[in-house]
């Protein structure tokens, strides 16, 4: 994996130091700033791939700075992960409303943080995935945005395509609706869990035309699984 630049904006020295270390160990190239003003100076010379932004900063708050960045065309597309204090649900909601891509609650495990960063980078298209994914006779082409069974092309919507992409890259595991929402739609989008059921139903109907409706399986009381095995 190529090195991604991550700008860490955190006023607490110990946490900032820990974040820098964790990022370096995971192959990222971190840059540090102790507040929004300093972060703005870093941005003058660097365009990071992602910003890890503490909510509570002295001076301009993290959320206020994020809001300003999202208004600037050159910075708008930099994904932002907000670091929030434990249990501040309202803050999380507000953070996502202003356009942050995700949030991580303190205290967090380094593993969780890195997983979140990778997921956001993937969703924003910065980490390219495999171009062609095959499972059995199913073929998903991410470049041409095509899903086919044998030589037959299936007519799926962009959302169903993303759902199939997730399923085909994560076969034989059960996912809850919440997990699917997180992984396929991302946490910055508000949709109801039953919307997933609607997409699954449509997907099954399309697959059903080829006698393959049972590869997307309902696991009662839990969620869904994609599997070629019954
Ligand atoms: Ca802080």
Description:
It is a single chain. By secondary structure, this protein is an alpha/beta fold. It folds into 2 domains: 5-123, Response regulator (Rossmann fold, 3-Layer(aba) Sandwich); 132-226, Arc Repressor Mutant, subunit A. Helices cover 40% and strands 22% of the residues. It contains 8 helices and 12 strands. It has a 5-stranded parallel beta sheet with strand order 2-1-3-4-5, with helices on both faces. A 4-stranded antiparallel beta sheet has the order 6-7-8-9, covered by helices on one side. α1 links the parallel β1 (5-9) and β2 (29-33). α6 (158-169) crosses α7, α6 crosses α8 and α7 (177-185) crosses α8.
Broad shape = elongated
| Biggest sheet character | 5 strands, parallel
Topology order in helix (H) and strand (E) letters: EHEHEHEHEHEEEEHEHHEE
Ligands bound to this protein structure: calcium ion
Number of helices: 8
